[in-house]
Structure prediction request, 370 residues.
Amino acid sequence: MKTYNIAAIPGDGIGPEVMDGSLKVLAAAQQAFGFALQLTKYEAGAQHYLQTGELWGPELAEQLRGHEAILFGAMGDPAVEPGILERGFILAMRQEFEQAVNLRPVKLYPGVATPIAGLTPERCDLVIVRENTEGAYVGQGSTIHANTEHTVAVQESVNTRAGITRVVEYSFKLAASRRGKLTLCHKKNILIEAGKLWQEVVTQVGARYPQVEVDYVHVDAMCFHLPVAPERFDVVVTDNLFGDIITDLGAVIQGGLGVAASANLNLDGSAPSMFEAIHGSAPDIAGKGWANPVGAILSAAMLLAHLGETQAALAIESAAVHVLGELPVLAGPDMGMDTAGIAEAIALQVSQDFEKVGGHSVMNSLAEVR
Ligand code: NAI
Ligand code: MG
Prediction:
């Protein structure tokens, strides 16, 4: 039997709750599809930091490197100053493990309520590829004349040809496996230097993919087009900062934080990729059973697809969609089931042969595109 060595980092708040849900569903998928996951849990996050002072470090990095993939819950706590864990753990992992692509499917599943009036699943089926290691998120900059009226804050955005090329290559392959359309999202009329390099790379790489149609949209215009005309997009490639913003917009359109999933992909096999729901630790609802685990469960399915267990991943996706369709609302006390109940319902249905979800599944792409 195929065995995969997986690390699990539950983290804080609802992180451990949605992680439990994912693990239930993964256990059912192992039974149904005949593979085995060897799981190791790691303590990390706000509570761990408050107790030990430890964030991301060489020892943990070394241990995690020994795994084929990482399943991540969420981190954050009001007792820890904002930014410490984001930069000291999450960004540090993405950078050290060269998780170059942040992959965020924006797919409206049937039966899921969207705040966009009249939007139908056929019209909302795209993937955003966010550059995940550079841009404004490199943490470079300086402050001079601090704490005076003359304070100057400089925050740099770093864009390398190599960093851009690897995500653009990936995006073209992804588009070629889907509807064959790639949109570069930037602000190249204002951020001229970075924009020029991004456009140059897209044009160069695009020459090798004549079957992919290439388009460009400014990031501000994207905020207009994405909610009202998502059918215009198949694969959108963008930089780290713009990606952070438009992927949250995408999450709203597809039904919210309870359903949105993501992958942080290392593209050269030098370190494990990491899979997480896009929501945070939601301290306001932690411990109440009000967290929707579907975003986490779909992220776990993406992990399986990445490992090559595509059938199991597709089965989890369709079981999750089936259960989502039964929830009156997607978050909070009125979901009709609690976090554990939703996960159990999905786990029970993983081995049932539902009709696969229509359109393009990112589960197929994850296996095909490397
Ligand atoms: P959040 O995503 O934790 O919560 C935002 C709102 O959505 C809250 O009202 C929450 O109750 C609700 N919500 C989130 N996930 C939900 C789910 N699965 N089901 C139902 N409702 C859900 O974002 P927030 O409140 O800005 O941040 C809380 C903490 O999480 C902070 O410490 C922040 O730094 C951290 N954070 C961590 C992330 C990560 O681990 N990757 C990502 C985003 C935030
Ligand atoms: Mg964000």
